Amino acid sequence: MLNPANNIELIYNFIPAFLLYAELHFHLNLFRGRLFIKEPEILSDLPIRIEPGKKLPILLLIKDAHIFPIKLQNVEVVLYKEHKIASSYDKRYNLSINKHWWYDTLFIDVDNIFGNIQVDIIFTYEINGNIKTCRIHNYPLSTHRKMETFISVYKYPNDGNVVYGDLHYHSNLTEDMVEFGAPIKSTLDAAESMGLDFFCNTDHSYDLDDKPGS
């Protein structure tokens, strides 16, 4: 028999995973989660650190547009240093997207910027005839504050006997209602910009044998 205290802990551990899922349009029968909207997931991401001499890779990801097609008009990237604009970049797409997975990586030149910076990403897109914008992502009830990274002037210390890597990484082969990962190519771009020598793919075995979209 389970200890009542363990039962309570089990409930507390279960509820966040059930409510705070990754897919915006996921629902169970009559239950719709608090994040439910009729849009694909729109996300951006970046590494937490950039090696000297490397460009800043920014991942743009749109997932499940085969269910909710959109037209991505443009993406604006604004870099802030000490709360002042240090650089900006605008890419115009005018691209209709109806794929399960769509992604692009923007490589931003940061040669003259060092230290801690904040990055704002503004998506402008059209869905169901309406023009909309979102910052960083389109998840309701989640923070839209700027992302942060550190642009280093020094490489990782190395005497020739050290390798740097990430031992736990999920690609987009891990896909379920709670989480999904980034494409391997974009992760390789991020790893190289950070100065990593390797990363380990640790996808969920129970996701690998699913039917697409299941």
Structure description:
- This protein is mainly β and 214 residues long.
- The chain has 3 helices and 13 strands.
- Strand 9 and strand 10 (130-135) form a beta hairpin.
- The relative contact order is 0.18.
- The model is unreliable at 1-15 (pLDDT under 50).
Provide a short characterization of the protein structure.
The chain has 214 residues and is mainly beta.
How would you summarize the topology of this molecule?
Blueprint: H1 4-19, E1 27-28, E2 31-32, E3 41-45, E4 49-50, E5 56-63, E6 70-81, E7 84-97, E8 101-108, E9 115-127, E10 130-135, E11 147-151, E12 165-169, H2 184-194, E13 198-201, H3 205-208
Parallel strand pairs: 4-11, 12-13
Antiparallel strand pairs: 1-2, 3-5, 5-8, 6-7, 6-9, 9-10, 9-11
Q: What proportion of the residues is helical, as a percent range?
A: 10-25%
CATH 2nd-level architecture: Sandwich
CATH homologous superfamily, by name? Immunoglobulins
Series of H and E elements: HEEEEEEEEEEEEHEH
Low-confidence stretches: 1-15
The first-to-last residue Cα distance is 34 Å
Beta-strand portion reads 35-45%
What gyration radius follows from the Cα positions, in whole Å? 19 Å
CATH C-level name: Mainly Beta
The name of the CATH topology is Immunoglobulin-like
